[in-house]
Write a structure and sequence with these properties.
The protein is α+β, with helices and mostly antiparallel strands. It is built from four helices and four strands.
Length: 176
């Protein structure tokens, strides 16, 4: 992802949005194999969940991230980019694969989270989006996807919503 961005030295932009123009290049592995988890921490709704994102927890995802990082630099070293910009962050010092992974984990990682209420025979949610072990609770969002789609989750999330409408419509018809 290549985005025009306004930057400020040392952090937040000053009042009025004055800053330096630049670009931000972001990437994330397609079809990652890393898995995170969500854990209940107590018996009440006030007990916050413990989130363990699991970003870059597999060698497969390490290689994809390191390769994507190198490829982004390779693209930006070609014209017309090379003569129009200079790398500011993370700067040329981040070269070793371990440093690349640490930089990515420390300074931001963009990955859509899915699967915390995975649909399927072994999942949290059944084929009618009902949460197993509860009464009258359904889930209809990206969390029912057992795996991250190769592309953005927006279209798949819309499909889940569309399917949820059908499921609820059919459930209402059966209850009449």
């Amino acid at each position: 992802m290549f985005t025009s961005t306004l930057f400020a030295d040392g952090g937040a932009l000053p009042a009025g949005g004055a800053g330096s123009r630049g670009v931000s290049v972001a990437f994330y592995p397609q079809s990652p194999t890393s898995v995170g988890s969500v854990h209940i921490t107590g018996p009440t709704l006030e007990d916050p969940p413990r989130l363990v994102p699991g970003y870059l927890s597999t060698v497969h995802d390490w290689y994809l991230t390191i390769a994507a990082f190198a490829r982004a630099r390779e693209i930006l070293a070609t014209e017309p980019f090379a003569s129009a910009m200079t790398e500011t962050f993370p700067a040329a010092a981040v070269v070793d694969p371990e440093d690349v992974l640490q930089y990515v984990l420390t300074h931001g990682f963009n990955q859509d989270a899915v699967g915390t209420c995975a649909l399927g025979p072994d999942g949290v949610v059944d084929d009618e989006l009902r949460v197993r072990g509860t009464d009258r609770l359904r889930v209809a969002d990206a969390s029912v996807m057992p795996r991250l789609p190769t592309l953005n989750t927006e279209a798949a999330s819309r499909a889940v919503g569309w399917s949820a409408g059908d499921v609820l419509r059919n459930a209402n018809r059966r209850s009449r």
